Amino acid sequence: MTKFFISIQGGYQGLYIALFREKICIQEVFKNDKRASSELVPYVQELLQEHNLSLNDCAFIAVDRGPGAFTSLRVVLATVNGIGLAASKPLIGVNGLQALSDQVKASIADESKNFVLLLNAYNDDVYYALETVGNDREEGCEKIQDLLARLKAGYPELSFVFAGNAVQLHAEKIKEALPRAQLLDEFQVATAEFVGLRAYQDWLEQKNITTKVEPLYLKTQYFSLKKPPL
Q1: Cβ atoms 67, 118 nearer than 8 A
Q2: I need a surface site. Which of 33, 147, 200, 219 has the fewest CB within 10 A?
Q3: Residue 223 above 60 pLDDT?
Q4: Which of 21, 18, 49 is closest to 31 using CA atoms?
């Protein structure tokens, strides 16, 4: 039986939705609207109806679980969790930095390259994934100037390829700290296609399948409570 599934990415400015037949991406649409995540359900229905399908035809739903913009990520995941519950469909959450890494490496097939994936965490913070040849992968959230200083001191012999939506934002700082760095502006966030490809592999291996996807923030959220007047 052919396995269809939907893949969704909506952590920042817009919303990507892709329809797959097994590992083949049949169609991907992008809604360039900050509020698009609030219209996720009709967008999914519209895409399925274009191919005479419904959620009943889908084996599972894949979604980027972050890191990303706090509010958009919460809205998308809450909606996807609701769709999964209502339609009794399993969910697979995908690390957006890993999906972005897959996307960049599909374009740059060079195993000698060292990569830094950067996503905007606001207030000069970045979500990052550091992937150096022959070493373990590292990811987290850090001030951009601290991350660059650490790369400069820790890897003086290496040059890096930077990609992600925080690259253009911090381009001058990156070039000043690491003059040999290659900055790729064409990769902003992982598309739903690459989120779906990674989720499909998990589906084949029957791992990371859940009924509720939790967000991957990497950044501690600080809140303060106002004391009532005495």
Answers
A1: no
A2: 33
A3: no
A4: 18
